[in-house]
Specification:
Elements: E1 2-8, H1 18-29, E2 34-35, E3 40-43, E4 56-63, H2 69-83, E5 94-99, H3 104-115, H4 120-130, E6 133-136, H5 142-151, E7 158-165, H6 178-188, E8 192-193, E9 196-197, E10 202-203, E11 213-219, H7 222-231, E12 238-246, E13 267-281, E14 284-291, E15 294-300, H8 307-312, E16 319-329, E17 332-344, E18 348-352, E19 363-366, E20 369-372, E21 378-380, E22 384-388, E23 397-398, H9 418-426
Parallel strand pairs: 3-12, 15-17
Antiparallel strand pairs: 1-4, 1-5, 2-4, 3-4, 5-6, 7-11, 7-12, 8-11, 9-10, 13-14, 13-16, 14-15, 16-17, 17-23, 18-22, 19-20, 20-21
Helix pairs in contact: 3-5, 4-5, 6-7
Bound molecules: adenosine-5'-triphosphate.
The site of adenosine-5'-triphosphate has 24 residues, from helix 5.
Length: 427
């Protein structure tokens, strides 16, 4: 029989990582049961407030002997109990077991957990209806992610290879040779991606926290991901590694919405007209976007760095498609920009003073009229409109890799532009 196992919310900023626990479980359970596929790393709604980092949950499926089920369950629960970071108030682990085929009802729940905010009670209801067995530790909020990870069909997916550190190294600086990462990137990009930030000259595969992850290598080709890992020089011992199949970089959090449908904690793609061009507060850049149903504030926050330059190039009247998460920022509903596509550019006009019709001299504004600086000739103030070139192009712009949400699809990947273009067709 098939046995599906889901886990979530075992980690905190102080340590641990649900993928680490998942990888250990996958290895241990594979000794007694046949894995049906690689384990799944499922990213859920990136806007929920409870997340530690990227709102990821883990699930795995096995062909098992009925008699082995109790001991597998015991192993999972024991491992979660011994490894989860129970000291942190925001760590509320959840474990779910499901036997047989994954019902459609659970798949529907998964997409709700990617698009919306769901409650623990709703997760409990779905578990009851689908005969999933849930185990809650503390608040047990992790059952939301655990159920959603089991329910994800992964029709579109990417890979991430995660290598973990020996416990004695947790919390210390990660020792990965920078040049070797650039070299491996050069040979495997774009089949592996987000290894480096070429503009900053920095390495992106190493996280910075106290968690056990040493490196994470993402890609669309499993073999190239593995090759990159094998060719990167790691100057500390690796405890073990695991390749996950994941919904990262699939854009599946984005749905086409009208502005009056936008809700906090959701993500969306909207088409609208720039109704107020940019202003800045601190290092954040804002503008307003309107459609026939309303107006929303759009933000490119400081961490999006060079991306803000393109946002400043937008002017009133530009028609754009904008994608991002919806949050309240300083009490105002705000779309936190991930990508945008200017589809119709307004004309940028400046008004210039004419030359003096008598002597060709320079005119000076004097209230309602113009006066020549050279010969003193006066005339009504009629300015000449002049079209300025637009610097921005009709193409999709995206935030840099280190500011990108796990679910957001980089433009370099096949179908990276699909969601935005789909929104264009629908509008
Ligand atoms: P990591 O990426 O390191 O695994 P994390 O960012 O995944 O950490 P968690 O510790 O898993 O953070 O916390 C996220 C919590 O939010 C989990 O309890 C999960 O069940 C819950 N959750 C996930 N999606 C939703 C949702 N759509 N609505 C409400 N709660 C959710």
């Amino acid at each position: 029989m098939k046995l599906h196992i889901g886990i979530d919310d075992t980690d905190s900023p102080n340590g641990m990582c649900t993928t680490y626990l998942g990888a250990m479980l996958y290895r241990e359970i594979s000794r007694v049961a046949e894995p049906l596929d690689l384990p799944k790393l499922i990213r859920l709604n990136p806007n929920v407030p409870y997340k530690t980092r990227g709102n990821g949950a883990v699930a795995m499926s096995f062909e098992v002997e009925e008699d082995d089920v109790p001991k597998i369950k015991e192993l999972v629960l024991k491992m979660v109990e011994s490894l989860a970071d129970f000291n942190h108030e925001n760590t509320n682990p959840g474990v779910v077991f499901l036997k047989g085929e994954v019902p459609k009802r659970l798949e529907d729940f998964t997409y709700r957990a990617i698009w919306e905010h769901v409650t623990i009670k709703e997760a409990e209801e779905v578990a009851r209806e689908t005969n999933a067995e849930i185990y809650k530790f503390k608040l047990g909020r992790g059952i939301i992610g655990a159920l959603a990870a089991i329910g994800h069909p992964l029709r579109n997916f990417t890979y991430e290879l995660l290598a973990y550190r020996k416990r004695e190294f947790w919390g210390t600086e990660r020792r990965v040779n920078k040049e070797s990462v650039f070299e491996a990137d050069k040979l495997t990009y774009p089949f592996t991606y987000d290894n480096v930030d070429p503009f900053k000259g920095s390495v992106l595969i190493t996280p910075h926290g106290k968690d056990p992850v040493l490196v994470g290598i993402r890609g669309i080709d499993k073999n190239k991901v593995l090759w990159a890992f094998e060719n990167i020089i790691i100057e500390e011992p690796v405890e073990f590694f695991q390749i996950y199949k994941t919904n990262q970089n699939t854009d599946e959090h984005l749905r086409f919405r009208k502005i009056d449908e936008l809700k906090p904690l959701e993500s969306a793609i909207v088409k609208g007209r720039v109704s107020r061009s940019y202003w800045e507060k601190g290092r954040h850049v804002f503008f307003e976007l309107s459609d026939d149903t309303g107006t929303i504030r759009v933000a490119a926050f400081e961490p999006t760095k060079g991306f803000r330059r393109y946002v400043r190039m937008l002017i009133e009247g530009d028609e754009i498609i904008a994608a991002g998460g919806i949050k309240e920022f300083n009490g105002v509903l705000t779309l936190n920009l991930e990508k945008f596509y200017p589809i119709k550019l307004a004309e940028k006009i400046t008004y210039e003073k004419p030359k003096c019709p008598k002597c060709g001299g320079t005119m000076k504004s004097k209230g309602d009229y113009l006066k020549c600086k050279k010969c003193g000739h006066k005339m009504p103030k009629i300015l000449i409109p002049k079209k300025l070139p637009r610097e921005i192009e009709k193409k999709i712009y995206e935030v840099p890799p280190d500011a990108r949400k796990h679910l957001s699809r980089p433009l370099v990947l096949p179908l990276g532009e699909e969601k935005i273009l789909e929104a264009f067709e629908k509008s």
